Amino acid sequence: MNFFTKSTSSSQKYKNPADLVKIFVDNATKLDSLSTATSSDGSATGQDVRKYTEEITKALRGMKSLLSSPDGGSNNADLQIDQATELSHLIFQSGLLKLLLKTMPHVDFEARKDGSNVFGLLLRRQVGSRCPGVDYVCREKELVGMALRGYESEEVALNTGQILKEMLRHEALARILLYSDE
What we know:
This protein has 182 residues and is mostly helical. 76% of the residues lie in helices and 0% in strands. It contains ten helices and no strands.
C-alpha cells in the first residue's frame, strides 16, 4: 500500500474553487445544525460529525493550497492565479468566513489550523494596491467580533488569536477592533 499516492489523490479531489466553497458551506451548515440540535436534544451521531468534519478539512486544505501558491512554480501559473482569484471571490460572496468562525469549535485541530491559514491568506492577498480580504472584513465588522469572542473557548483561542494577529497588521481592521463595543 502506497501512502503517498493516497494522500495526494485525496488532496487533489476538489481542485475547482466552486466545489471547494460548496463542499465547505454545505458540510459546515450541516455540522452547525447538528451541533445546535445536539445541544438541545443530543441526537447527533459521531459518524455524521466525523464525516462532515473530514469534508470540511479536505475543502479547507484545498483552499489553502490554491491560495498559498498562486504561482506554484508550475507551467500554468495564470490558471492558478485565476483560480485563487475566483476562490477568494466565492468565499466573500458565500459568507464562508463567518461560517468558518462559527463552526471552528466543532471541527478538529487540523481543520481549525487550515481555517486560520485560509483566513490569513485572504487578508494578505493583494490585487494591485488593494487588499480585497481587508475590504471585505471592514464591510463585515461582525467577523472581528466573532474572532475576538474565540478567546472564550480554550480549544479555538490559538486559532482565532492567529486570525486576530493577522487582522491587527492592517490599520483599518485594528481601528475596528480598538473602537468596537465588544
